[in-house]
Amino acid sequence: MGSMEEEHTCPMCRDLFGRAQPFPCGHSFCTACAQEAWSQSGKRRFVCPQCLEEQGLVVCDCCPEDDSDEVQAAVKTCLRCEVSLCEQHLQPHLQRPAYSTHLLVEPLMDVTRRRCPTHQEVFRYYCTDDREYICQDCILEGRHARHQVKGVRKVEEEYKVKLQSLFKKAEEKVKQGENMLQEHQNACRTVIEDSSVSDVSQVLQMGSALQTRVGRLVSAVINITEQERQQAMDRVQEDRSRVREDLNQTESIHRFLGSLLDERDPFLLIWAYQTENSQMMADLNSPLFTPPQPSMDKKRVLENVENKYREFIADTLRCLIELKRDLLSSPLTLDKNSAHPLLNISEDLHSVMRVKQRLPVPEHPDRFDHWSQVVSCQIFSSGTHYWELEVEGFWDIAVTYHSIGRKAKEGTAFGCNKISWSLTQQHDRKLAAWHNRKKTQLSVKMSGNHLAVALDYNSGSITFSEVGSASTLLPLHNFSTSFTQPVCLGFGLYKPELNSRVTVLKKI
To answer: Between the CA of residue 33 and those of 9, 16, 40, 147, 299, what are the distances in Å?
Structure first.
């Protein structure tokens, strides 16, 4: 066991590995280390990282051994002749038909590395069943009789064809990845810059709106105080008028009494006194009107001011809530390639309508072919998002994994599987929540056609609400789950006679 473990231990990373194809020198490595060593070799010839046997200079075996001549480096080694050849002495092997079957490889210092250790014959064949190099005697002995055996050069040609195909595929994938990375970088830059500019603009608009509201509040409080002051002045004026009336009446009596005292005719005096006596006595005995101390009704002023402040606070909160929704609102467009042929997508990709006749759309692997459904282009795997929709008719609004099936009836309808959560309004305007084929009938109905969807991916929360008057949110249903895949928004539309449609409302 110890020997087997040592044999299957990578000499570079010291990790155990399974069966591996050894290098021609006999050493074996785990796949990861072999690939890393091969990648680091670059354009140079690859050599075994352990023995490094191929790194020395291989000289030509056919050049004369004369100290006066410069040593010629070999460019190929012939495994049939078992000699290394420089460019000049290699020409016969390249030109004469007699040498066409000879196997030429990169220059080797030790040809014995390419010999069969059992028969001492050069490896010319490869057994694909045992994944090992073999010589002609190995074949004759019969151990590989029923195995698929090919010449080394033939295997090389076949593998090069396969490698060329894989190389092109890897090259295309690299280009695709680079393009995707560039597009993602550009999109991120655009989204972040546009979002930043939009957010600042919205905050500035909110600040301007709040300043306007503060100005209105100050004006309202000043008007309330001025109105109360004017009312207090009017009350004082009324009291002054009553005092003036009483004073005028008393002055009239005073003048009348003075004229009687000056009267010389006793008969006229007696008649006048007796005629006015009762009324005059009543007027004199009645007290003068005493006006109250001038004051302002502070309680009513404070009540009015408090009401104005409450209106201001409610206005401010509403403004902040709208700002929050605007900042959380994520761009949303519909994926035409996913739309069922009975769904008509608008040019701006923000609206979808159920139609009666199938549209002439091309086949696409992402297209729903049974249920009249469509999903958004955008995919979300983190963060908090908010959308407002205008809905009409028989509709189904869902948050779904982007990996939902598209090509069958079973398990592809929103809410009828474990990977989608939906809210449905039927033809009678009754609402129901769906998940994993479980239907939850809701007791409420929407009074309008304005729906809000809030998604918190990290906490696994999905909230459907109706947008009421003054932009208030009236919760309809909430799902709590734990997301394990990226999600997107999905719309399902039925009953074209109900004018079923959904429109994504764009925030300004």
So the answer is: 12, 12, 11, 30, 86
b/e for 205-228, b at 16 or more Cβ within 10 A? ebeeeeeebeeebeebbeebeeeb
pLDDT higher than 50, residue 186: yes
Q: What is the total residue count of the chain?
A: 508
The Cα–Cα gap between 397 and 476 comes to 13
Residue type at 43 in one-letter notation:
K
- Alpha carbons within 13 angstroms on the beta-carbon side of residue 232 total 15
Question: In this structure, what are the phi and psi dihedrals at residue 48, rounded to the nearest 5 degrees?
Answer: -65, 130
Of residues 399, 395, 391, 394, the one with CA closest to residue 466: 391
Cβ atoms of residues 388 and 452 within 8 Å: yes
| Residue 395 β-bridge partners | 425, 493
User: 428 is written with which tokens?
Assistant: 């009678």
**Closest C-alpha among 251, 245, 255 to residue 289:** 245
User: Which has the higher per-residue pLDDT, 226 or 401?
Assistant: 401
DSSP state of 361: -
CA dihedral over 89, 93, 94, 95, signed as positive or negative: positive
78's tokens: 């012939």
Amino acid at position 329, single letter:
S
Secondary structure of residue 40 in the 3-state scheme: helix
| Sign, Cα dihedral of 408, 409, 415, 416 | negative
Which residue blocks in 262-297 are alpha helix, DSSP H? Answer: 266-285
The 76-78 sheet, strands edge to edge: 83-85, 76-78, 104-105
How far is the C-alpha of 290 from the C-alpha of 288, rounded, in Å? 6
105, 77 Cβ separation under 8 angstroms: yes
Report helix, strand or coil for 317: helix
Segment 31-37 long-range contacts (CB within 8 Å, at least 24 positions apart): 37/12
Please tell me the predicted confidence (pLDDT) of residue 1: 47
- Coil vs helix vs strand at 477: strand
How many Å apart are CA 85 and CA 68, to the nearest integer? 19
Poorest-confidence range of 76-90, 191-205, 386-400?
Answer: 191-205
Structure tokens at 372: 């009249």
pTM score: 0.48
Residue with tokens 């509201």: 213
Question: CB burial class (10 A; 0-12, 13-18, 19+) of residue 403?
Answer: exposed
List pLDDT tens digits, range 30-80. Answer: 777 766 666 665 555 556 666 655 456 788 888 887 655 666 888 898 888
CA distance 317 to 475: 18
Tokens of 260: 């009687």
